[in-house]
Amino acid sequence: MVKITGFTINDVRFPTSLTGDGTDAMNTDCDYSSAYVTLLTESDLVGHGMTFTIGRGNDIVCMAIKEVANRLVGKETKELFSNMGKTWDYMMADPQLRWIGPEKGVIHMASGAVNNALWDMYARSRKKPLWKLVVDFTPEELVQSAAFRYISDAITKEEALAMLKEKEAGKKAREEKVRELGYPAYVTSAGWLGYTDEKVARLTKEAVAAGFNHFKMKVGADQANDLRRGKIIRSIIDDPQYLPAGSKPRDLTSEELRGKNAGPTGAVLMIDANQVWDVQQAIDYVTGLRDIKPWFIEEPTAPDDILGHAAIRNALKPYGIGVATGEHAHNRMVFKQLLQAEAIDVVQIDSCRLAGVSEVLSVLLMAAKFSVPVCPHAGGVGLCEYVIHLSLIDYIAVSGTMERNVLEFVDHLHEHFVTPCSINSRGRYNVPTNPDEGYSIEMHQSSIAEYEWPNGSYWVGAKARKV
Ligand SMILES: [Mg+2]
Q1: Distance of CA 159 from the midpoint of ligand 1 (Å)
Q2: Taking every annotated instance into account, which residue ranges of this chain make up the domain Mandelate racemase/muconate lactonizing enzyme C-terminal (predicted)?
Q3: How far is the CA of 3 from the centre of ligand 1 (A)?
Q4: Helix count (H) and strand count (E) of the chain?
Q5: What are phi and psi of 19, to 5 degrees?
Q6: Do residues 309 and 301 lie in contact, with contact meaning Cβ atoms separated by under 8 Å?
Q7: How far, in Å, from the CA of 327 to the mean position of ligand 1?
Q8: Annotated catalytic sites, by residue?
Q9: How far is the CA of 87 from the centre of ligand 1 (A)?
């Protein structure tokens, strides 16, 4: 029996605003940040977790983490791990904290950080990476671990169980396949709004050479500008001369590319507006970008506007352009309604805006039932490290397919993690295999010491340079 005895919290901020990394039409000045928590026990077992912000306000999330983590102090890990769905319900049910949600905003993100830390601890205690812990669950254990409150009108526990049982027999073969091939990924780092045309062209060529064939570009600040940048990217990704040596254009009739507006080499372009438009504005603006043939427009409008997304999706259908959203969908009920209203073509869960692995599992189950692919959001710090685990769970145990899925990859800040994610020569995520890496989110102590805000060595130095 091992009890949780306490926790540490770190407000860690990286000065990404200096390089334009992470810039889009809405977020013009981001310092990628981590509200980072480590749960401690009587033994040397620990659990690391975090949620992601883009700078100011990270301290507010850290304060909320303290309140949520306090609920776990003194609890037996064995009891918490024995029913992670019940544990999740308990974490959400503080009769006073609930008022500053419920299940949304700062308190929910803080709950995500703590729930993720607990799942990290659980995986470490079983000497498995998190994805492996979950795919080795029986269907009953997996359903029991999910957050089911308020979603039974979309999927019942019995339906979820039947779905998972149907996938049981193929789990082993899928695990072997993905270990060998890796999980499909796409690149966002080439298309940040703050980059020059030259930088976009250079990064796009590098991404093609690295084996990627799905690319995302930020749009929404200026339509003519977006069209020009989109054509630059298209001119590179559609040109066979830039493909890696020895590789041929992909089969345009394959399931992998169906309905994705792929160009002649099989390259797919996605665009992301980060919520800048009203509904009609979104329709008009994206219609004007139809020549660059995007697969989908991501976050065209306010993230809570379910019917607005549905209207945009209907209006763009004639151009073969879909709608994706989810990085700001603050709980499973938003995803439930997006699916029920047929408002989206792609579910983009965020690993720490949702309140941790338990709530993610419930969204994976709903998406599988509605046959909508899950392509997690990972533009940020630590998110790529997290989401490979979630996509592996989706593929191996839940949806059983990765053919049409692509997992976002952003090549920033991985060096701060003890077990960073990595990409293979096919442009796919490698499968995490270290039995001690848990949810892969442990940060180097040296990175925390350097970037902790406001007293880490980097920030103290920055202040001195300003003076
Ligand atoms: Mg986005």
Answers
A1: 31
A2: 197-319
A3: 39
A4: 17, 11
A5: -110, -5
A6: yes
A7: 6
A8: 218, 377
A9: 30
Token pair belonging to 72:
């776990």
Gap from CA of 377 to ligand 1 centroid (Å) = 7
Contact 250, 263 (CB under 8 A): no
The boundaries of the domain holding residue 391 are 171-429
Other Cβ atoms within 10 Å of 86 Cβ, number:
14
Q: Decide if 197 contacts 229 (C-beta within 8 A).
A: yes
CB 11 within 8 A of CB 453: yes
Q: Check residue 413 and give its pLDDT.
A: 95
Cβ-proximal residues to 409 (8 Å cutoff; 6+ apart), any chain: 185, 186, 187, 188, 189, 212, 378, 384, 421, 423, 429
- Asked if residue 87 and residue 177 are part of one domain, the reply reads no
Q: Which tens digit of pLDDT belongs to each residue from 407-461?
A: 999 988 999 999 999 999 899 999 999 999 999 999 999 999 999 999 999 999 9
The gap from C-alpha 288 to its chain's centroid, in whole angstroms, comes to: 29
Mean pLDDT rounded to a whole number for the chain: 96
The verdict on 461 and 420 lying in the same domain is: no
What CA dihedral angle connects 390, 73, 148 and 185, to 10 degrees?
Answer: -10
